[in-house]
Amino acid sequence: MTTTGPHGAAPRRRRGRPGYDQAAILRTAVELFNRKGYDATSMGDLARELGLTKPAIYHHVTSKEQLLGQALDDALDELTAVVTEAAEERAGRTAYERLREVVRHSVEVLVAHQPSVTLLLRVRGNSGVELEALDRRRRLDERLAALVADAAAEGALRADLPPPLVSRLLFGMVNSLVEWYRADGTYDPATVADAIATIAFDGLRPRGDQAS
């Protein structure tokens, strides 16, 4: 479907390519950032990838940094929603059960937003947008560590490991999917989520509950 420009006129097509809306430009930008690196990618590179002129892109976005911010928000907004729901105390739901849920749902978010999550995991704080994203990740880590601590206080997890370390290791396993998971591959998201939860939480059981 062809989108319209700011005054209702359809954007001029180039080299036989269809017109692009903002969502399509963002998808292509994320693919390019992941392939070349954000700092090494210019708006000219994006224009060539899309088969558009730079002015045509600027009808939709103001800058490369805006595209980066939108991509990072795409990943972080979903992850924040998952963690926020898990952090809320609910009748009949233990911290341990909510922690397992957040691990499973984080796998689902990563699979559904893999390009954006991949980009998020590669940012290094070289701009204001990246620093803000890193701060949001830090706050998520803190909330997850608190949930780990609550689960340990319930006696559901071993208490001899620092909760921030456990949180980092748990979600390090989830984040590793960006390096190898493919939607058309052997394993569906549910199988991957079950495997991560089983391996991680079996190892985190209190020592008295583990087989000798």
Automatic annotation (TrEMBL):
UniProt entry keywords in alphabetical sequence: DNA-binding, Transcription, Transcription regulation
UniProt xrefs under Pfam families: TetR_C_24, TetR_N
The HTH tetR-type domain, residue ranges: 19-79
InterPro entries: DNA-bd_HTH_TetR-type_CS (IPR023772), Homeodomain-like_sf (IPR009057), HTH-type_TetR-like_transc_reg (IPR050109), HTH_TetR (IPR001647), KstR2_TetR_C (IPR041490), Tet_transcr_reg_TetR-rel_C_sf (IPR036271)
DNA-binding region ranges: 42-61
PANTHER family from the UniProt entry: HTH-TYPE TRANSCRIPTIONAL REGULATOR BETI, HTH-TYPE TRANSCRIPTIONAL REGULATOR RUTR
Name of this chain's protein: TetR/AcrR family transcriptional regulator
Organism: Actinomadura sediminis
